[in-house]
Amino acid sequence: MLYAGIVIPGVVGNGIVITIVRKTPSMHTTTNYLLLNLAVADLLTLLLCPGLYDFALTKVRLEGFSGDLVCKLFAGNAVVSITINAAVLTVCTISVERYLALLRPFQSNLRISEDKVKYVIAALWFLAFLSCIPDIQANTFDTTSSKYPCKRPWSLDEYFLHKPFIVFTCVGFGIISSLILFICHFEIVRGLYFAKTIFSESTITEAERRAKKQLARLLIWLALVFAVCSLPFSLYFIFLISADFRTVQKNYETLFSLHRLSRLLLFSNSFLNPILYALQSSNFRDGFNLIFNLRLFGCNPCAKGRNSVRIASSTGFTQAEVAENYVLKTNGDIIAGAETND
User: Fold this and answer.
1) pLDDT in the model for residue 132
2) Is 241 a residue whose pLDDT tops 90?
3) Is 229 helix (H, G, I), strand (E, B) or coil?
4) Would 191 disulfide with which of 72, 197, 199, 242, CB 3.0-4.6 Å?
């Protein structure tokens, strides 16, 4: 029931994000394509979440190739590990893009153009796939176990057989990714409020000041939620790797409960991402209202007045629009906006 509570609304939320970006031409920008990729990764993560199938597979007889296939796709962590790692890499890419847009606006060669974003997304998925090859190989049908039909590296019964892979994943996709996120967001907040390298307080308007505060709050929440959802799972397995095996067996029930809790938090991140990254944006809300009206009433609410819908020139992060556009104009081009490279 707990997994159903995050999977159902998470699938709906990520599906809405995907639909809005695909159906709204003005939102075909670099940042929104990255958001679209994040939503696809999160959608697949929720649909393939092993927690949805645990209760059923304990009573199902599997064998041979079909058993291995079910274990890799649904019951194990093989495919869902790829989608989770792809989402983590996408989140880091968005954070670095935001950092470069605000703090390195004139180094446009470091940023991702709209023409290259599809290659970046393909590279993210390829890296995610490479990082999970040991997981794919290890998730197989288990003919000897009476408790669960699949071998799973990310479990209390198998973790000690895959220590190098688990350490690599926890450090690379858990701790280092969190550090990248915190550093990028810390530097942006520092530039906004302390170093004043992004804004000059004497020249900004009240609307821009409000946008700055909203941006800072969003960045803090993004970093906190990502850490709260992702770090416990990584720290849990790092503890298991460093702990004595006899200690783990002695406290098996307690550690099993902590394992399920940390896994639930990890999948909750895929439910929260569309809220934090997209659905909180007025541009996405306007995009949803536009599509809803077109589907329901067959009319375009923009026809009577284009100013009534604030979709154009969106990066998907309303909080940052005024701030970025204010400081990153150069030769008529908005480096962080949707009109040119973003």
Assistant:
1) 94
2) yes
3) helix
4) 197
pTM of the model: 0.81
Task: Give one DSSP letter per residue of 100-163, joined into a string.
Answer: HHHH-TT-GGGSPPTTTHHHHHHHHHHHHHHHTHHHHHH--B-SS-SS-SB--SSSTTTGGG-H
Query: Are 110 and 68 contacting, i.e. CB atoms less than 8 angstroms apart?
Result: no
In a domain, 341, yes or no: no
Mean pLDDT across 226-236:
93
Residue 338 CA: distances (Å) to CA of 105, 245, 287, 295, 342? 14, 54, 15, 26, 5
Q: Higher pLDDT residue, 280 or 319?
A: 280
Q: Is residue 340 part of a domain?
A: no
Rounded distance between C-alpha atoms, residue 314 and residue 90, angstroms? 19
Place of tokens 């176990």: 145
Contact criterion met (CB below 8 Å) for 32 and 21: yes
Length of the chain: 342
Number of structural domains in the chain: 1
**Secondary structure E strands in the chain:** 329-330, 333-334
In-domain check, residue 297: yes
What distance lies between CA 26 and its chain's CA centroid?
A: 23
Give pairs for 172-175: CB < 8 Å, separation 24+: 172/131, 173/84, 173/85, 173/88, 173/89, 173/131, 173/234, 174/230, 174/231, 174/233, 174/234, 174/235, 175/231, 175/234
Structure tokens at 121: 């997304």
Extract the tokens encoding 226.
Answer: 């990502």
> What's 130's domain CATH number?
1.20.1070.10
Structural domain harbouring 194:
2-334
